[in-house]
Amino acid sequence: MSKADVVARAITDRLAPGSALVDVEKVAVDLGVVVVRQDTDQAVDAMLISRDGRVAIGLSGARPVVTQRFALAHMIGHYRMHARRDLLLDGLLRRRHARLSSIPTDREEAEANRFAGALLVPEKAAREAAVRADCSTGADLVDALAGEFQVSRLVMGYRLVLLGVIIDA
Question: Is-contact 4 107, C-beta < 8 A?
Fold first, then answer.
């Protein structure tokens, strides 16, 4: 189990035990993070600002709900695991290099992505949902659970492969 998995599990065990749908805003508030949404240009999905012990995460309110949930979880991951950063902007690289959108650019980005997946799709809840789902293919399972957990197909597929529930998304 990675550091990202351990940190996310500690949070979900405390704030959302047994729940499939994690209230990521509640997680942020519990951690003392102020969340602000604003319709912005779509070059930035999220930003994290840390100053004098206070932390705010800004989200583009123009993005779909699943994108906002993942962006918030991703930034919480940076906050919990990479605290030395005072300012983070997310989304710029993705816009400039669309074909690289799901490939993290460095170890910290990969770790924050893994944290976000583990926070939004807790292992126990994912396994239980997969068992009770009436799906005949991995793709059907990804579709069904993405809706249940309010994440994108990409996030759900990656998470289910990582957990060994399916072989290929």
Answer: no
Contact predicate 138/160, CB 8 Å: yes
What sign for the dihedral angle of Cα 56, 59, 65, 70?
negative
Whole-number Å distance between alpha carbons of 42 and 161: 29
- Residue 45 token pair: 């999905």
* Alpha-carbon span 135 to 147, nearest angstrom: 14
Closest CA to 58 of 77, 84, 30, 39: 39
Token readout for 95 is: 């816009």
pLDDT in tens, 129-165: 999 999 999 999 999 999 999 999 999 999 999 999 9
Measure the CA–CA gap between 160 and 158, rounded to whole angstroms: 6
pLDDT (tens digit per residue) in 57-90: 999 888 899 999 999 999 999 999 987 767 777 7
Helix, strand, or coil (residue 113): helix
CB 41 within 8 A of CB 152: no
